[in-house]
Write a structure and sequence with these properties.
It comes from Ornithinibacter aureus. It holds the Pfam family Abhydrolase_11. This protein has helices at about 45-55, 65-70, 80-90, 110-120, 145-155, 170-175, 195-210, and strands spanning about 5-10, 15-25, 30-35, 60-65, 105-110, 125-130, 160-165, 180-185. It is α/β, with parallel strands linked by helices. The model has no long low-confidence stretch (mean pLDDT about 95).
């Protein structure tokens, strides 16, 4: 399938962000918007295969670089800063969403947290969470389960792709938080790069339900 890619800088209250949109020929089925994790300056393979799988399935896909990455910093900002920037970028992407088509928001790790916290405000139809960091390693008492539950309080389904040995929260722990939700278990730890092909399959399955 032929794809077109366009990159735009978007001004936010916390500095310029970047949105890179991949769009297939013809009218897309929907729009998937993905954010990155809290460290490093590159897109990891689990996110890029998610983009490719979604585009192959006929979706427009936007990858959003937070302002701290655009500025070349290696450490992410505070949650409030990440949410502000995300909320500033999302309205600029409406032109890539087909009329009546679904909006799915998500991301990897910290990006998944941002998507969950803001899903209701952006009126998302679903959330796609890659390696949701349910708690710091070895600290289950510091649960971020309320963030993971937040979309469901507004009737927004959450699809989670989680590594079987993720120290930030196993698939079993995620299922305890999201009873009855779609949790796709793949081999791996918090990094899913070695299971990229299985991640792509899980993403395609999740999007087919949206």
């Amino acid at each position: 399938m032929t794809r077109r890619e366009r990159t735009a800088i978007v001004e936010t209250p916390d500095g310029p962000a970047r949105a890179t949109v991949t769009q297939p020929d013809g009218i897309p089925l929907g729009l998937l918007v993905l954010g990155h994790g809290a460290g490093g300056l590159r897109w990891t393979d689990d996110v890029t295969v998610s983009r490719d799988a979604a585009a192959d399935a006929g979706w427009a896909v936007a990858l959003v670089d937070q302002p701290w990455r655009v500025a070349g910093r290696r450490i992410g900002g505070r949650p409030a800063s990440l949410d502000r920037a995300w909320l500033a970028v999302l309205p600029t992407l409406h032109a890539h969403r087909p009329s009546g088509g679904p909006l799915v928001v998500g991301g990897r790790s910290a990006g998944a947290r941002v998507a969950c916290r803001t899903a209701a405000e952006v009126k998302a139809d679903a959330v796609l969470a890659l390696s949701f960091p349910l708690h710091p390693p070895g600290r289950p008492e510091r649960s971020r389960g309320e963030e993971l539950r937040e979309p469901g309080r507004h009737g927004i389904p959450v699809h989670v792709v989680q590594g079987a040995s993720d120290a930030f929260g196993t698939p079993e722990e995620v299922r305890e938080i999201l009873t009855g939700a779609a949790v796709h278990e793949v081999p791996g730890t918090h990094s899913l790069e070695r299971s990229a092909a299985l991640v792509a399959r899980a993403v395609t399955s999740a999007l087919s339900r949206c």
